[in-house]
């Protein structure tokens, strides 16, 4: 019987790099060794090093060793990208691992589902985004993921990501890509490998040339930015004056949903979104059918549990199909909309109440003080109900308290864009002093640059960076 490494090489469509060959050899032990305890492999890799091509070869190799596979990613957009490059179904982690169940009081809680997959390799892309801070369940997402995967015999876990990308919000590192953390926290037998050689097929790309340069700067003591555009056909520098022409070009060539501006702050994103709607789309009303929005806070109210998406997650994209009515309540403005999730083709359109105020807020979502006011005003309406249980049930079902929080999605912060890819990406340098050019900014810029698949536009960057 051939070894996994031999079959992987035969299924790989290019001449593998040294790093890819080393990875294939790791599979000889990873797939075959039955003595491993919770076998885990971490594949870290620079942009353009062939991580996605490797996954395609792995999926084709698994049946030879009686393994099945499950493909997962942290967000709907990342799962859609994964499904695109593998030509196979990919799930969000929360849809696969968790199940919504109703509490006696009428609220929803997430419980880890039973895992019925045996002898299965779970392949998780964009693992740099996975936090181990409590989120969907009582544990961190990473903890629940590992508990789920290894609750059945013969399962294995492959975590794929890039440590140069932004870590989860509020974290300094990406725990799912840290070998020592995984071994010490979860007792798994873990191996790790990092792909560093950009594949020959990608070496003509200015996007990947600049990404590689930026990533290499993260290894240097002093952060220096040097961007190259003139010798590449896919990377351009642009002043603010040319932005309108550039956006029109990208929208005409790729479609509105396949182009995005990535900027430094929510305030900048709000300004850019207003500019795009006014100057390029000629939209006069504050919200219209055809507008694209991003959900900015998890919402468990508007989708049935059986839906393809599971729930409306922070980072999901929707298109406005119809505006039903506007209203003002509790000092906030609301609108009822008919919406279509853009990254779940099997999901039926649905109706939801949306808070209009968050669209224009310079903050990421409705702030705690505003939400507290809303909660208190909603609560006061149910004071005449006879029992506490009835009051809690009514509050939890209140459509205004459960209203979706959204922003326009033509311009996004880098964290909001993570896990997604667009054909054309416009990266705005943002306000930047000499002291602000540090490793954190380079990591931000690297993550933004690597969202582009076909054309990259560097907007308002200082001449000294070229």
TrEMBL record:
Keywords: ATP-binding, Endonuclease, Hydrolase, Nuclease, Nucleotide-binding. One of its GO terms (molecular function) is DNA helicase activity. The keyword tRNA-binding does not apply. Residues 409-459 form the UvrD-like helicase C-terminal domain. Pfam families: AAA_19, UvrD_C_2. The keyword Secreted does not apply. It comes from the Bacteria. This is ATP-dependent endonuclease. It comes from Roseivirga misakiensis.
């Amino acid at each position: 019987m051939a070894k996994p490494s031999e079959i992987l090489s035969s299924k790989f469509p290019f001449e593998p790099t040294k790093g890819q060959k080393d990875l294939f050899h790791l599979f000889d032990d990873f797939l075959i060794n039955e003595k491993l305890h919770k076998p885990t492999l971490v594949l870290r890799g620079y942009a353009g090093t062939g991580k996605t091509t490797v996954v395609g070869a792995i999926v084709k190799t698994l049946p030879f060793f009686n393994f099945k596979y499950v493909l997962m990613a942290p967000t709907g957009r990342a799962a859609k990208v994964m499904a695109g490059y593998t030509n196979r179904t990919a799930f969000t982690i929360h849809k696969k691992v968790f199940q919504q169940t109703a509490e006696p009081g009428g609220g929803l809680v997430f419980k880890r589902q039973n895992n019925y997959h045996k002898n299965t390799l779970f392949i998780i892309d964009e693992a740099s985004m996975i936090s181990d801070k409590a989120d969907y369940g009582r544990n961190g997402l990473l903890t629940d993921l590992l508990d789920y995967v290894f609750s059945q015999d013969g399962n294995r876990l492959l975590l794929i990501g890039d440590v140069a990308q932004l870590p989860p919000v509020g974290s300094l590192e990406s725990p799912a890509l840290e070998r020592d953390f995984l071994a010490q926290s979860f007792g798994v037998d873990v191996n790790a490998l990092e792909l560093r050689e950009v594949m020959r097929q990608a070496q003509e790309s200015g996007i990947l040339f600049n990404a590689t340069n930026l990533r290499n700067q993260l290894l240097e003591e002093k952060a220096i930015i040097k961007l190259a555009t003139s010798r590449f056909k896919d990377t351009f520098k642009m002043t603010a004056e040319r932005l309108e022409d550039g956006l029109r070009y990208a929208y005409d060539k790729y479609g509105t949903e396949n182009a995005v501006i990535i900027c430094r702050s929510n305030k900048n994103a709000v300004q850019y979104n207003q500019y795009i709607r006014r100057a390029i789309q000629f939209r006069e009303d504050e919200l219209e059918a055809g507008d694209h929005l991003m959900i900015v806070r998890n919402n468990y109210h508007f989708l049935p549990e059986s839906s393809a998406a599971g729930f409306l997650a922070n980072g999901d994209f929707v298109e406005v199909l119809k505006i039903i009515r506007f209203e003002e309540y509790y000092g906030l403005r609301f609108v009822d909309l008919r919406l279509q999730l853009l990254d779940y083709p099997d999901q039926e359109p649905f109706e939801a109440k949306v808070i209009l105020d968050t669209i224009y807020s310079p903050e990421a979502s409705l702030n705690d003080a505003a939400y507290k006011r809303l909660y208190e005003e909603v609560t006061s309406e149910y004071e005449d109900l006879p029992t506490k249980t009835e009051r809690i049930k009514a509050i939890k079902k209140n459509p205004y308290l459960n209203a979706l929080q959204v922003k326009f999605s033509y311009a996004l912060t880098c964290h909001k864009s993570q896990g997604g890819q667009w054909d054309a990406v416009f990266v705005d340098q943002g306000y930047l002093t000499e002291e602000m050019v540090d490793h954190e900014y380079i990591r931000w810029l690297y993550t933004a640059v690597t969202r582009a698949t076909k054309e990259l536009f560097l907007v308002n960057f200082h001449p000294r960076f070229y």
